[in-house]
Design a protein that fits this description.
Shape: elongated
Oligomer: single chain
Helix content: 55-70%
């Protein structure tokens, strides 16, 4: 679903940076360059991108990337909660600390 609205958002992004920061770069070339930087592969042309949306390949690669990130963070979470607590504190809760939204001065 995101690939449909993502195409329009991505096209608007290219048009916006192509009219400001990269004003002297042709928009089709800017799209190709940005696709390369983001590892998007071959997407639709800029004028077709809002209607076509991002490709199914984009969805597949982003899903794989997200799953790899979750698995990596889950592994580090498991390692950090492996039970390495100081002796004599098993079953005891740590005292609650009050969270302050800003540092005390």
């Amino acid at each position: 679903m995101y690939n449909n609205c993502g195409g329009e958002r991505y096209a608007n992004f290219i048009r916006n940076i192509g009219s400001t920061v990269f004003r002297d770069v042709p928009k089709d070339e800017l799209l190709r360059f940005n696709n390369h930087l983001l590892n998007y592969g071959e997407e639709a042309k800029l004028e077709d991108l809002p209607a076509a949306g991002l490709s199914a390949d984009y969805v597949f690669r982003e899903t794989q990337r997200a799953l790899a990130g979750v698995q990596a963070s889950a592994g580090s979470f498991r390692e950090s909660t492996s039970g390495s607590r100081p002796a004599g504190t098993a079953g005891k809760r740590r005292p609650r600390t009050r969270m302050r939204p800003w540092p005390r001065r």
